From TrEMBL:
PANTHER family: LACI-RELATED TRANSCRIPTIONAL REPRESSOR, TRANSCRIPTIONAL REGULATOR. This is Transcriptional regulator, LacI family. It comes from Paramicrobacterium humi. Residues 18-72 form the HTH lacI-type domain. The keyword Transcription regulation applies. Keywords: DNA-binding, Transcription, Transcription regulation. InterPro entries: HTH_LacI, LacI/GalR-like_sensor, Lambda_DNA-bd_dom_sf, Peripla_BP_I. One of its GO terms (molecular function) is transcription cis-regulatory region binding. Pfam families: LacI (PF00356), Peripla_BP_3 (PF13377).
């Protein structure tokens, strides 16, 4: 077929969805009975409920949750903001939170900042537009605009993976600077005298900046006359290859360095693998430490010295706090310090 001007007429693709009325006709019951059966209303018999449920499955009906949400002012959504999904520890946190929230009827919608505070601000704006019932986020430092939006959202907020005196809402985490300070002290106690810290100085990676601060504090306490050694990753992605490259750069800039202390296990593991390819002995030629105790850490040969963070427990505790607040079972904010553990293994 063509239009009056001779152009081909586009065929309209049907987008008709199966409705609650369709279920009612197929089940030979009223629409009200279908609605009540799907809400497990006590007036509906078990036999009728099973019949309606079987009909729903047979014809492929999916309830319109948006309409239900508008009526109840409850979305059953939890906005979840993480810096990366390629890092196992953040995935562990999200997975643990999901195991608490999903059985309670809440779904997580995920946003990834890629370590950009500006992108985080845009994500917060867009996710709040979906009217989530709660917000779970990695990080405690935000732009001024992002902080204002979070405080004005009127829903529970839980920040994680850090520590601050002024959280936006509740807080579940630990002090990154204290953790790296403790690791540096252990390294110095083991006899190393020329550590170099390798990590990001980017505003978007607040955890790496805090760990650098903890390293710097430990070095200035031990060697007040020396400037602490630091090599900036300069925006490199957190990959094994980047870790290999950064170890090479650190040794070029600081040839007397006897231990490379990375801001994260991913980079540290890449350095361990790269060192082995180059014939470097670990820890005899260069010792290496990481942070996070990722799954790869214990798979290295030798196993990686690092700081253990209970990423799964961060997710569980955060989700439980959110759930209680979304259900109005608790009021006020909570602060839960989960701490950390320094673990020295074969790379030192």
């Amino acid at each position: 077929m063509t239009t009056p001007d001779g152009a081909p007429r586009r065929r309209r693709i049907s987008t008709k969805r199966v409705t609650l009325a369709d279920v009612a006709r197929a089940a030979d019951v009223s629409a009200q009975t279908v609605s009540r059966a799907m809400r497990n209303h006590p007036d509906i018999s078990d036999e009728t409920r099973r019949h309606v449920q079987e009909t729903v499955r047979r014809i492929g009906y999916v309830p319109n949750l948006m309409a239900s949400n508008l009526a109840s002012n409850v979305s059953r959504l939890v906005a979840t903001i993480v810096p990366s999904i390629s890092t196992s520890v953040f995935a562990d946190t999200v997975s643990a939170a999901s195991r608490v929230l999903e059985p309670a009827g809440y779904q997580m919608i995920l946003g990834v900042t890629e370590y950009s505070s500006v992108h985080e601000e845009h994500l917060i704006e867009k996710l709040l537009g979906r009217r989530p019932d709660g917000i779970l986020m990695v990080g405690t430092k935000h732009t001024a605009a992002a902080s204002r939006m979070l405080r004005a959202a009127g829903v529970p907020v839980v920040e994680t993976w850090g520590w601050t005196k002024r959280p936006v809402g509740s807080l579940v985490g630990y002090a990154n600077d204290d953790a790296m300070h403790a690791l540096a002290q252990e390294v110095l106690s083991a006899g190393y005298r020329n550590p170099v810290f390798i990590g990001s100085a980017s505003d978007g990676d607040e955890r790496a900046r805090a760990r650098h601060a903890g390293f710097t504090r430990a070095m200035r306490e031990a060697f007040p006359e020396r400037e602490p050694r630091f090599v900036d990753t300069e925006g490199r992605s957190l990959t094994l290859q980047s870790g290999d490259e950064m170890l090479t750069r650190a040794r070029e800039r600081h040839p007397d360095a006897d231990v490379a202390m990375f801001a994260t296990d991913i980079l540290a593991c890449g350095a361990v693998l790269g060192a082995a390819r180059r014939g470097l002995r670990i820890p005899e030629d260069i010792a290496i430490t990481g942070f996070g105790d990722f799954e790869l850490a214990t798979a290295m040969d030798p196993a990686l010295s690092t700081v253990t963070i209970r990423s799964d427990r961060i997710g569980t505790e955060s989700a439980e706090i959110l759930l209680a607040q979304m259900r109005s079972e608790t009021t006020g904010t909570q602060k839960v310090d989960l701490g950390y553990e320094v673990v020295l293994r074969g790379t030192t």
